[in-house]
Each structure stands twice: as structure tokens, then as C-alpha cells.
User: What shape does this take?
Amino acid sequence: SAPLRRRVFFALWPDHTVAAALHETARGLWSACGGRLMRRDTLHLTLAFLGEVPNVALDRLSRAAARIEGAPFVLELDRVGSWHGQRIVWLAPQEAPAALSALAGDLDAELEAEGFALEARPFSPHVTLLRNACSAPPATGPAAVRWPVSAFALLESVRGVGVATYRVLGSWPLAG
Ligand code: 2AM
Assistant: This one.
């Protein structure tokens, strides 16, 4: 039977080429740092995390997304870091492009206008590459990944046996 609720979030979802580059970087870090390597087809940058929402709310999510008037931008993912508590190793932009911060901020505002409550914690753009990894990844090493961004997506997280897979529910262009 179909679930009545879905676990969803908005994210930047890489094309095959960028996902392959991210995964290469992840493998390099994994060899130094261990842990669990995120699969290539799951790599993403979260913009807004909603968690479980009822199916009937999906229309409101689409409406919020459709109101975004974003501009395309290029992300230079040139910084490796970790969060010790969660033992996550991630890749992030040294400096977030203004268009990325604007996109996340506008999305938050539109989601709140549609009645969704979001976390107050500040936007910290990152792509998780490893979980349960060492807490001191090598700062130098992988080359920066260049990610031209021209759309954002709504993703559903589907819990499989042991693994989560993600399904794109919708995608909206950043037409400029
Ligand atoms: P993470 O990679 O740093 O764990 C799907 O779970 C995506 O949503 C992941 O990118 C995850 O971030 C993010 N996520 C999970 N729970 C979250 C929360 N409570 N707040 C913000 N982002 C969250």
C-alpha cells in the first residue's frame, strides 16, 4: 500500500558528470579516512529539509518551489570538512555564491508562506561524502569539484533495507 507520508527535502541534484566527480573525491577521502562511502546516485546538496510530510501537502511544496525566481550559478566545492559529533565528512564551497544563499533563503520564505515549519539552524551548504568516518579528514588532497547549477529539485528519501535511496519528485529551473 502507498504511504500516506513521505520524507522529503529540497536539494541541488547533480547531473551524472558532477556526481561522478563528487564520487571520485569521496573515494579519495574514503581511502584516507574510512567510514561509509555515499553511493554516487545519492550525492546532493540539501537546500531545505522538511522531513515527513503528508502526501496531500506535496502540492503546496510544488507551489512554493514554482515561485522561486533564481539565477543559475557555479558552485566551486573546494573545502573538505567534518562534523565530529556526526562523523560526517563533507565537501563544501569555501565561499557560498550569493545566488545559492538567495535560493536557500527564498525557498525557506516560500515554504514558510505555505505553512511549513523549518528549522531555525543556519543554512550550511555541504555535500555529505562519508558517514561514520574519521574526524580529521585530510584538508588538502582532492581537487575542487566545479558544479554548474541551473535547477533545484524536490527529493523523496525512500528507506530500503539498510540503505536510503532518493527519488526526484520535481525539478525547477533557475532561469535567471
Ligand atoms: P546530511 O547529509 O548532513 O546528513 C537527506 O537526509 C538530506 O537531508 C541529507 O543531506 C541530510 O544532511 C539532510 N538532513 C537530514 N536531517 C536534517 C535536518 N534535521 N536538518 C537539515 N538537514 C537534514
Observations:
- The longest helix spans residues 16-33.
- The radius of gyration is 16 Å.
- The CA atoms of residues 14 and 44 lie 6 Å apart.
